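Progress narrative, Year 2. Work on glucose-6-phosphate isomerase from Termitidicoccus mucosus advanced from sequence curation to structure prediction during this period.
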Amino acid sequence: MSQIRDNIKPAQVPPPCPLAAIARDDLFVHYTLESARLGNRPMVERRLADLRGCFADEAAFEAALRQGNPLLYSVSSVEPAAGDGQLHYGLGILQPGKIGAEYYLTKGHLHAHRPAAEIYVGLAGEGAMLLEDEATGESRLVPLRTHSVVYVPGHTAHRTVNTGAAPLVYLGIYPSNAGHDYAPVAKNNFRHVVIERDGKPMLVPREKK
Ligand SMILES: [Fe+2]
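Result:
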């Protein structure tokens, strides 16, 4: 037994809890589904024009943009503390709509710290998460809706899609050191597209240009 115990590495001692260092309004944050805003945090807004290059049907994108530049999604986030073991989280709201047959979507990203995973909690609406393994390109379309939780593994590009008729509201919780890397998706986009076919969401391979 002692042999076994000797082979167990001692658990790493976490740094002292920085409770006193965390602002009171970072310990408790109120939100409403209507505003989809975390407390008084600023909202990062993305409009249609910001999504240039994301949608598969470029002609439909340009046609839609000529009609206006609607807000597609916004995100507010809380970053209570940095450092090993700490968490950040963000609340997103993605509007319903389509460009051609493709549902409204977020830009999508990898984490700058590639091993960092993330938890998405569906709070309102109906949508999905497009997951793509960075190394293999393996893709999954996972439902994201009220009363559901989606696990995004590390090393996985992820994009949110609204497949419903109402705003999709969700909470994303991630390690404080995750960071956001948008460059690979901006350069290569996802290998698959989420379109509506016969009234249902479907994952189809992106057509090569
Ligand atoms: Fe993320």
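Residues 1-5 have pLDDT under 50 and may be disordered. The longest strand covers residues 71-78.
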